[in-house]
Design a protein that fits this description.
By secondary structure, the chain is α/β, with parallel strands linked by helices. It has helices spanning about 1-10, 15-20, 20-55, 60-65, 80-90, 105-120, 140-150, 165-180, 200-210, and strands spanning about 70, 95-100, 130, 155-160, 190, 215. The chain has 9 helices and 6 strands; from the N terminus they run ααααβαβαβαβαβαβ. The longest helix has about 35 residues, at about 20-55. It is elongated and about 80 Å long. Residues about 1-10 and about 40-50 have low confidence and may be disordered.
């Protein structure tokens, strides 16, 4: 399969050459495949080393067992979130996670929230999700809203200083309305949304939807 791919992409004239010098062509393609494999391996090793440096001092065991995780200010990106999410999905002890001041956006947030949702289904009792000052947009807000629906112990969520707009505000307003109507029964008490891209109209929508039991803040006091 590798030889075929290399043949098509790197050596479009290989069939004609092969007809005249089949052995030489096979050797050429084999050498190209080895070079491509070595390049891919080197790239993977480099990425792994960079990821390891960003998670310096944090072990896989801690990701899977700790009750509180501090992953702030590590330049974690979407790929990093995808890498740690499977470990977080196995953590039944996690109660608080602080993962703000990083570089991940909607994709990374979706990976994390999916991991948390799996863990919650297996008995995790997550209480606090701190995602302040990342690059979270409307997609991340929707992922967090879905997490709130299934995480009955989640009582504090920090999404301030991100890039959430009115579509994300709408998604959060919907889950707040569901809480108020008793359709879902999470323990949410505090939701921080300050310094995003939410307009005054979006803020009004969220505040109107929030039941008295949930304090929504657009400014850190």
């Amino acid at each position: 399969a590798i030889l075929a791919q290399v043949s098509r992409s790197a050596f479009p004239l290989a069939p004609a050459l092969a007809a005249r010098r089949p052995l030489a062509t096979a050797r050429l393609l084999a050498a190209a495949a080895v070079a491509a494999s070595r390049f891919a391996m080197a790239t993977a090793v480099t990425a792994c080393a960079a990821f390891s440096s960003r998670l310096s001092g944090v072990t896989e065991k801690q990701l899977m067992d700790s009750g509180t995780l501090f992953l702030k200010s590590r330049s974690l990106n979407d790929d990093d979130c995808a890498a740690i999410a499977p470990f977080l999905a196995k953590n039944r002890n996690l109660r608080e996670i602080y993962i703000g001041y990083n570089s991940f956006g909607d994709e990374g947030a979706r990976h994390l929230c999916n991991g948390f949702s799996q863990a919650v289904a297996e008995g995790q009792r997550l209480h606090l999700l701190g995602c302040r000052r990342n690059r979270l947009g409307d997609g991340a807000a929707k992922a967090v809203a879905d997490l709130i629906r299934v995480a009955p112990d989640l009582d504090e969520v920090g999404l301030d200083e991100n890039e959430i707009g009115d579509e994300g505000a709408k998604a959060l307003a919907e889950v707040l309305s569901e809480i108020g109507a008793g359709a879902v029964a999470p323990a949410l008490r505090r939701l921080y949304l300050g310094e995003n891209a939410i307009t005054e109209e979006g803020k009004a929508l969220v505040l109107k939807a929030a039941p008295p039991s949930v304090g929504v803040s657009f400014r850190r006091g």
